[in-house]
Amino acid sequence: MKQIVAALAFLRRNDEILLAMKKRGLGEGKWNGAGGKVTANETVEQALVRESQEEICVTPTAYAKVAYHVFTLNADTDKPFQMLVHTYIVTKWRGEPTESEEMAPKWFKIANIPYEDMWESDTLWLPKVLAGDLVESKVSFGKNDSMLSSEVVTVAKL
User: Fold this and answer.
1) Which residues have CB under 8 Å from 18's CB, separation 6+?
2) Do 148 and 76 touch, CB atoms closer than 8 A?
3) Rounded to an integer, what distance in angstroms lies between the CA atom of residue 113 and that of residue 128?
4) pLDDT tens digits, residue range 44-69?
5) CA atoms 63, 130, 115, 92: torsion sign
6) Is there a contact between 27 and 34 (Cβ–Cβ < 8 Å)?
7) 152/65 Cα distance (integer angstroms)
8) What is the dihedral of CA 129, 88, 110, 113, to 10 degrees?
9) Hey, which end of the chain has fewer CB within 10 Å, N or C?
10) Strands 81-94 and 2-13
11) How far apart are CA 99 and CA 102, in angstroms?
């Protein structure tokens, strides 16, 4: 099965989190963090910085890894693939979040995160991360992005 390693960044300030509306590609029409594939000769953290610069026009300067996900997409088809996603909370950055061709960022109060317009599994792991847990998850999605199965484990308290 094809595997893609990716980095995902969520900016946080006080009781707010920055989400970005995906305008094209995988996850189009969903709120998510900034992120994407790790390229050849690039570390996960370098991809985190590059993708944040490309998608929301900020450069992360302080961040912590808070989750590792194994997302199996198209699990109910003959062409499934996996996204191995290293997820970070970014607490310091240079620049102001700005819309790009790929994403439109917006700040949300943590109490008002629009989970109904996000990946279905986000409701299972993101609240844990925002409460200070380090988590690992395995989630399978069908061809229409519906969640088929999930397992979320708290590894440690941060």
Assistant:
1) 10, 11, 12, 33, 56, 97, 105, 106, 107, 108
2) yes
3) 13
4) 999 999 999 999 999 999 999 999 99
5) negative
6) no
7) 16
8) -100
9) N
10) parallel
11) 8
